[in-house]
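FORM 12-B: Structure-to-Sequence Request
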């Protein structure tokens, strides 16, 4: 006899916040500043505890907005694991993006929620034109997330993504430039064709007189030239060829 599925774990916002507070550590909260994360609205809950709670709760869209509105750092991280990516609206994604105030919330939502939304590709183009540091970073964190997690999209949107990388590579702000570098390298890891295009862009950036563009290009060249990466893209192409036989 097949085992019965456990019923959904229904929970109220106040209960979710109480569970986060019970897992908080003053020592962990004190250490957030070392990673450039403001602790003003933080409890001090390790990510592994947030992910475990998210897995326990499951996707509950009605809970997500209340957690976000709490303004608590860990509650906003938890949103990535309880919101339903298929039910996100462009308005909701844009609103949350505008309220990003640190890289950790930005990256967690982009890599665990937004990159699973049917609106993801449209948000990359829109957010890459934003001025706010974390809004603009979101475009490239999302592009990097799609490069890693999206196994079905053809190369064309990623080639368009390289154009966004090129356009933003001169932005010297720390969190933007790191996001741009991340996206460039992630695209170059997908397959041999995208690796070649990423290498071309990285080579051009590395030769730039602009310090930020030059640094991003050199970082990408170091990474994309690694034997491990070259072997990875070659293996990826071999696997694709075998599927098409």
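FORM 12-B RESPONSE
SEQUENCE OUT:
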């Amino acid at each position: 006899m097949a085992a019965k599925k456990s019923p959904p774990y229904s929970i109220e916002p106040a209960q979710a916040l109480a569970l986060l507070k019970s897992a908080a550590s003053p020592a962990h909260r004190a250490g957030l500043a070392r990673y450039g994360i403001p602790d003003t609205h933080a409890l001090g809950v390790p990510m592994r505890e947030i992910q475990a709670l998210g897995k326990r709760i499951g996707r509950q869209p009605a809970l997500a907005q209340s957690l976000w509105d709490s303004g608590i750092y860990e509650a906003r991280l938890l949103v990535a694991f309880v919101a339903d990516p298929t039910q996100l609206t462009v308005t909701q994604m844009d609103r949350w993006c505008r309220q990003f105030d640190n890289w950790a919330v930005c990256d967690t939502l982009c890599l665990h929620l937004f990159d699973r939304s049917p609106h993801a590709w449209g948000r990359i183009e829109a957010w890459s034109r934003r001025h706010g540091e974390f809004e603009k970073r979101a475009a490239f964190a999302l592009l990097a997330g799609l490069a890693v997690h999206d196994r079905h999209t053809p190369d064309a949107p990623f080639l368009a993504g390289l154009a966004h990388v090129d356009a933003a590579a001169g932005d010297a702000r720390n969190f933007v430039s790191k996001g741009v570098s991340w996206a460039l390298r992630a695209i170059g890891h997908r397959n041999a064709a995208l690796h070649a295009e990423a290498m071309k862009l990285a080579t051009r950036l590395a030769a730039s007189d602009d310090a930020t563009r030059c640094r991003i290009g050199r970082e990408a060249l170091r990474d994309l030239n690694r034997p491990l990466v070259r072997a990875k893209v070659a293996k990826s192409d071999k696997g694709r060829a075998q599927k098409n036989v």
